Amino acid sequence: MTIPCIIHADLDAFYASVEALDNPLLKGKPVLVGGSPEGRGVVASCSYEARSFGVRAAMPMAQAMRLCPHAIVTPPRFHRYEEMSGKIMALFRSITPLVEPISLDEAFLDITHLGERGVPMTVVGRSLKERVKAETGLVISVGVASSKSVAKIASDACKPDGLLVVEPGQERAFLSPLPVKDLWGVGPRTEERLRAEGILTLGDLARQSDAWARQRFGKRGPELLALSRGEDHRPVLPEHEAKSMSAEVTFESDLSDPEAIAFQLSKLCLRVALRLAREGVKGRTVTVKLRLADFTTFTRSLSLPAPVSDAAAIQRAAQHLVSKETRPGRRFRLLGVGVSNFTGEGQLSLLES
Ligand code: TTP
Ligand code: MG
Questions:
Q1: In angstroms, what is the span from residue 318 Cα to ligand 2's centroid?
Q2: Ligand 1 cavity residues, CB under 6 Å
Q3: Which of 155, 170, 185 is the last residue before a domain boundary?
Q4: Which residues of the chain have a pLDDT value below 50?
Q5: What's the confidence (pLDDT) of residue 295?
Q6: What's the pLDDT at 279?
Q7: What is the atom index within ligand 1 of the atom nearest the CA of 106?
Q8: Do 183 and 127 belong together in one domain?
C-alpha cells in the first residue's frame, strides 16, 4: 500500500518578511505590520525579532509597542502580499498539481508520487525551501508527514526556517508530548474542557476511548481522538473551479471624491468583464469590496434578477453599492469588484477545466 506524502508549507512572519524584503533597512529588526498604535490597531504579523519581546499576532498594537518600544511599525500592503502569494503557489504547483492553498501564506502539497519513486522527503523539503528562498527571497517552514494534520503540526513545530519530516510510523510518538492546542480544530474552549478532564497532551487524548470522546464531544469526539493518534485520511484538494471572478486596486493615496471612485470602479468592472468573457460565464451576484483609510474592510453584495457579464451591467450594480457607502470625509484605500453565482453555457467547461 502506498503511504501518502504530504507537505505543509507556511511562510515565516509573512507580511513582516515581505516588508523586510522590500526595505532592507528592516532586515533583522523587530517589525510589526498592522494598524497604528494611536488607533485601535492590532498586530497582523510580526518578525521573529519582535516575538522575542513577547509580541504576538492579533495583539493590540499599543500593547506590542509597550513590549517592544523600538519596533518599526508599518501598515499592511495587501496587494503586494497577494502578489507574493501568487508566486509561491505557482512555484508549489510546479512540483505537483495537487496543491491546496489554505491561506495566502500556507498550502498543502501532495507529493506521494515523489515518495513512490524513492525520493527522500528531507531532500524534497530542503529543495522546496531553497527554491522559495532563491526565487522569492522569502523563508518557509516545511512539515512533511503521511497526513495533512501531522504535516501542519510539524511545520508549526519547526518554525522559523524549519524542516521537519515525521517518518511513517512515528506519527504518534511525534504528537504524544505536544499540548492539545497544537491540534487543528482545538480552540481555547476545547482546550479548557480537556484540561478540566486532566488531559493536557495529545498523548493523554490518544489514550482515551471512542465512547469517552463521543460522550463529551459528540460526533467530533472520535475525530479528535483519531487526529491525536496521527490518523487523518483527508486528501489534499486542489482548487478546481473558479467560483467568482474579481479585480481590486489599492490606491496610491486614499480616495474620497465620488467621481474619482466611480472612474476607478469603471476600470475594475471592465477587467472583471474581460475575465468573464474569456471563461464564457455570467454571474448573478455582484460584490464590491471596500477598505477604508483605517483598514476597516467590508463587502456589499447585490443579487440581480438575471446573470450579467458585460462591464456596463456590472458597473451599474457595483456603483449602486458603492454610492451607498461614500460620504463626505470617508476615505477609501482599496476598491474591489467581483462577480459570482455563475450560470450559463460556459459553466460546464469551467468545471471541466
Ligand atoms: P500566519 O502564518 O499565522 O503568521 P505569520 O506568517 O506572520 O508568522 P508565522 O507563520 O511565522 O508564525 O499568518 C499569515 C499572515 O496572515 C500574516 O503574516 C498576517 C496575516 N494575519 C493577520 O492579518 N492576522 C492574524 O491574526 C494572523 C494570525 C495572521
Ligand atoms: Mg506564516
A1: 33
A2: 10-15, 44-45, 57-58, 105-106, 159-160
A3: 170
A4: 345-353
A5: 84
A6: 74
A7: 2
A8: no
Residues whose Cβ atom is located within 5 A of ion ligand 2: 10-11, 14, 105
The answer on 37 and 21 residing in a single domain is yes
CATH number at residue 19: 3.40.1170.60
Which range of residues forms the domain containing residue 56? Answer: 15-77
For residue 159, being part of any structural domain is answered with yes
For residue 128, the domain's CATH number is: 3.30.70.270
Count of domains observed in the chain? 4
Mark whether 259 is an active-site residue.
no
pLDDT of residue 240: 53
Active-site choice (19, 49, 100, 106): 106
3-state secondary structure the chain: CCCCCEEEEEECCHHHHHHHHHCHHHCCCCEEEECCCCCCCEEEEECHHHHCCCCCCCCEHHHHHHHCCCCEEECCCHHHHHHHHHHHHHHHHCCCCCEEEEECCEEEEECHHHHHCCCCHHHHHHHHHHHHHHHHCCCEEEEEECCHHHHHHHHHHCCCCCEEECCCCCHHHHHCCCEHHHCCCCCHHHHHHHHHCCCCEHHHHHCCCHHHHHHHHCCHHHHHHHHHCCCCCCCCCCCCCCCEEEEEEEEEEEECCHHHHHHHHHHHHHHHHHHHHHHCCEEEEEEEEEEECCCCEEEEEEEEEEEECCHHHHHHHHHHHHHCCCCCCCCEEEEEEEEEEEECCHHHHHHHC
**pTM recorded for the entire structure:** 0.73
Quickly count: other Cβ atoms within 10 Å of residue 48's Cβ. 18
Nearest CA to ligand 1 atom 7: 13
Same domain, 83 and 161: yes
